[in-house]
Amino acid sequence: SADRVEPLECVQTAAGPLSAPREGRSAQFQCFDPGATVEVVLARRPTTTRLLSIAEIELGSNSASARIAAELHVAGGARSAFSADLAQHWTVDSVDSSPAGNVADWAVAPSPDGRRRLIVSLARAIGPNGSGRLEIVCSRRFERENEKLRQADLAPLDFSEIDRARQLTAVRPVFGRILDITGGEQLSCLCIDDLTEAELALCTWLPFDLLLDSGVRAETLAVGLRPPRVEAPATERGDAPADAALPDATAPAAWVWNQRLESWYQDDSAARHLAVYEIRNIGRGRLILTLPPEVKVEHVRGAWIDGEPAAWQAIGGDRVSLNLPADKTNLRAAIEWTTAEPRLGVYGKLRAAPPEPDSPVLARQWIVRLPPGREIADPLGGEPTAAVPQGWTAWRIDFSEPLPPELRYICRDSFRLFGVVAFLLVVAAGCRRRVADAENGRATRFALAALALFSAAAALLPDAFAAPAWGGAIGAAFCLAWRLPKHSQARAIEPPRRPRSASDSTLTMASPFEPLVLLIILALCGAAFGGAADRENARDEPVYRVIVPINADREPTGGRVFLPDEFYRQLHRLAASADKPPAWMIVGAEYHGTLSRDPSGGRIAAGNIRAKYDLHVFEPGVRVRLPLVSEGSAFIAGSVR
């Protein structure tokens, strides 16, 4: 940068930035002498670093873990080392970069003022005018149970030598617990709307139970956990015995908040199964899975933890043990095995049983994948989902019992062939070449009866089994369309037994039924084949599972719900894409009114109707507009309160 500019025999007339893509500033001078000059003293621009960071702390009863994401912007030069003061009682577990691989070395060393200091060396320097991200994981063990964190503890790392835009701290409790916040009444907490896009990009979990700027001082602030609510077992009279032993609420535990069983069935006699367990772990060292009776230990093909192969041990002949990492609270365990199944035929039943974990399971689902040409025949057993590989059929069903229900399957092409056979048999039986009036009458009655029978069967049977019924119904309709002209012609050439006029001739009476029968045929064809085409061409929409914690009265509790990551990100994308969020929302409505019958006309009329709306407003001073249907109604003045 220019440290000093001294014009000689000239004067500066203008200054401004350089044109893009160049960076810097320019100056213009007006000269008064041919020998005019400008003396410029240059100095190296100091290297400046700007920091944007957030510390996400998960608070447990015996320990706390923190993830610090630091976005570093370097200007004026390059920088390959950074340092930060480490708070007391915190320990650095790992240091990484984004993208990974740029951390050459890191160490925690004592500083001259007696504090500990984290020093990070980069393999590739940042800058000039560059940026990089560091992700640092810290942990802390409490000396006593349910210890509270003070404000100094809520900032595990302090980048004191770097210009900080804002240093955020977010706190949430472990699963099943609630934060207990004391002091800091004058502290103004932040919400998601207060964060910029750059700050939101640093977050890994939303929403926050507590979000604050660690640079704002609140000496009395303390964050801990509320004592767990434990109920003693009740006697027959409903009273808790005085000597009842309460369950140990602080014992290490784990929950399987979602268990997904995926089964691949082949045309041969083999099937492959994969059970995936989404686990919330609080101190458990291992997960024990009890295998189904038909599965042996030698059938297990492998196990994985968060996508990485994991070692497993057999316990006896029917159980498998998986070691859980101690440094992870949210993890995904999976186990794969094979079973011997009967060959897939025209029709059959499917049943599978996942290994049962030794932890509570909150939700269960079974995804069945069948090879091309097969489909699930139980319409109420679930819903179709994305199929892999291409051409396969996938079906998902949710269940609550340890064992999923039994599913029926069919061969789609075989049942369509049965429909063609039914069509040909009905046509062959109903379209015999006889002209006698009695024969034609019996054939017509046969076609009508067959049409009614097969149409009722097609309406009552599940879609998978309806192809033969639709074939029979279309064949019966075809017989009617083929028989009615024959029948009318035979009646027309028969010698009349009494004088008839042209208006009541059989030929003219029969003619209106011919287009009606043709319409019936077209409707049956559309119903038979249109629904199947729509199902095959329909686009699979993802279905996300939402878990709402409930209490003993089956009422929502805890003030939070659990969403899959993809669903949560999609909701935020939809909210961000909206031009303007609504200022208010109707969350409930009740309508009360009376109905009476008009004595003169017998019609039912409504009297006064009272409407009650529960509104949620998102900003002060909102003006709510509710449309009133003016046709046939009138507003009672003064009735709004």
Can you walk through the features of this model?
The protein has five domains: 41 residues, no CATH class; 177 residues, Immunoglobulin-like (Sandwich); 152 residues, tricorn interacting facor f3 domain (Immunoglobulin-like, Sandwich); 106 residues, no CATH class; 60 residues, no CATH class. The longest helix has 27 residues. It is built from seven helices and 34 strands. The strands form nine sheets. It has an eight-stranded mixed sheet, with no helix packed on it. It has a six-stranded mixed sheet with strand order 8-11-6-5-14-16. The chain has a four-stranded antiparallel sheet with strand order 9-10-7-13, with no helix packed on it. With 641 residues, it is an alpha+beta fold. Strand 2 and strand 3 form a beta hairpin. The chain is 19% helix and 38% strand.
Supply the helix-strand structural class. alpha+beta
Architecture of the largest domain, according to CATH? Sandwich
**Residue-averaged pLDDT, rounded?**
75
The CATH class of the largest domain is Mainly Beta
The largest pleated sheet is described as:
8 strands, mixed
The unreliable regions are 229-252, 433-438, 490-494, 497-514, 531-540
Looking at how many chains there are and whether they match, the oligomeric state comes to single chain
CATH topology of the largest domain: Immunoglobulin-like
What attributes does this structure have?
641 residues, alpha+beta, Immunoglobulin-like, 5 domains, 7 helices
